[in-house]
Amino acid sequence: MSNEPGSTLPATTPTAREAATRHAEYPRWIEVEDYVTASLHADDPALDEAVAASDAAGLPPIAVSPTQGRFLSLLARIQKSRRILELGTLGGYSTIWLARALEPGGRLITLELDPARAAVASANIARAGLADLVDIRVGDALSSLQQLVAAGEAPFDLIFIDADKQRIPDYFTAALSLSARGSVIVVDNIVRDGAVIDSKAASDPAIDGIRRFYEMAGAEPRVDATALQTVGSKGYDGFAVLLVTG
Ligand code: SAH
Ligand code: DHB
Ligand code: MG
Q1: Residue 60: which CATH number?
Q2: What distances in angstroms separate CA 203 from CA 112, 150, 166, one per listed residue?
């Protein structure tokens, strides 16, 4: 992605929070995020421990922010989700937010390529008391999705796409196969510091994947969609939110 000094903010780097703080253009993102969480979020030792354990294990700090996690959780609760599918587990931070939002008796399946990351997530999810609700499937998300489709898995209420970005179009297609009218699909990282509109980023496979996703979603009659830009401790990025209408 493009990253000229002083003009853009590296949303993807392990130092996104530090970078955001350094950038004079955006001095308030993190302060406001901290204000929002201090005002509206209760203390949350399980999530704090998940972040600490993920950092200690050397995982990159690319989980969703606290406000983004809360947003995902609220969406799942508004929609009364009983079945949630997540692509890209990392240390299980977003998984914990989403699993907590499940209706009684609900279940979450989360897909992660890296076994070491899945192990960190498993410990974090267990510490949060959610082990019985969460099924971590280790392997390539596309293979796992194909298995879910082949197994005739019932539609999911909420699907959070947050794995590798170049294959978002494939994940979106699979997500539609695993959806029904009323399902909600959320896609993370669909702004990437604005690189999505930067012609210089044309050869970046991740940005290319995001753009192809916009084209597909825009042409897909079965969804109503928009994208929300987000700023904060994870830099400048965004969520696409899609409702399956048919
Ligand atoms: N949802 C997490 C962050 C996920 S980061 C949170 O917000 O807390 C993206 C994750 O996708 C990484 O852990 C990475 O290992 C995983 N990933 C990358 N390629 C993948 C693939 N092909 N299949 C499954 N997971 C993949
Ligand atoms: C990356 C992945 C993410 O899901 C994210 O939110 C930020 C960065 C990455 O692979 O760099
Ligand atoms: Mg992400």
Answers
A1: 3.40.50.150
A2: 26, 34, 11
